[in-house]
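Fold these two proteins, one after the other.
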Amino acid sequence: MAAPHEGGCACGALRYRLSSDPMFVHCCHCRDCQRQTGTAFVLNALIETDRIEMLSGETKADTMPTDSGRP
């Protein structure tokens, strides 16, 4: 894929632009990810912070504790 990429959250409150491709994208099938998303797997992308431009909305840190105690 060629950068830039634009995206946002499902509710539309956040919009962002990535100035480069992610370093990697992976798919996790662990039970914690399945429970947190309600699906069979979750996709994660790792990218450097300085390559993300926020277009609208504000970010906040959030944690989702699991029964195992892992985040």
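Now the second one:
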Amino acid sequence: MSEAKVKALVKEAGKEAEIKEITIKLEDLQKLVKGMIEIIPFPGIEGLDIILNEEGKLINLDPNILIPEYNDMAVGPIIVLGFNEDEGDHRSLSEEEIKKVKEYLKKNDAREYKGNIEDFLGVDFYIL
């Protein structure tokens, strides 16, 4: 991860997503999500990632967005960035990507979620 500034969408739980210029240094990403980071592909839009708090559900961060494509929920602050596979690094979001991501985040906002976050805790076992 580099120190370049990129245009990202940052969404706090219970709030609208905001466009922010951020550095993509590990420490800065951890500060934004309030802990260790986990990176997942953004559902339905190739070349985008969601960066979230890896332990967010375990430490009871507030619900942020539902991710029905993964039968999951993101809790706590999230960051949405583009990803350049050729360079192996994150990049700024385009205006078109920002529009699509904002629509998705608004549609899947979890502030009204009344269920149990534990329903989204999962453990995967792999046989090697």
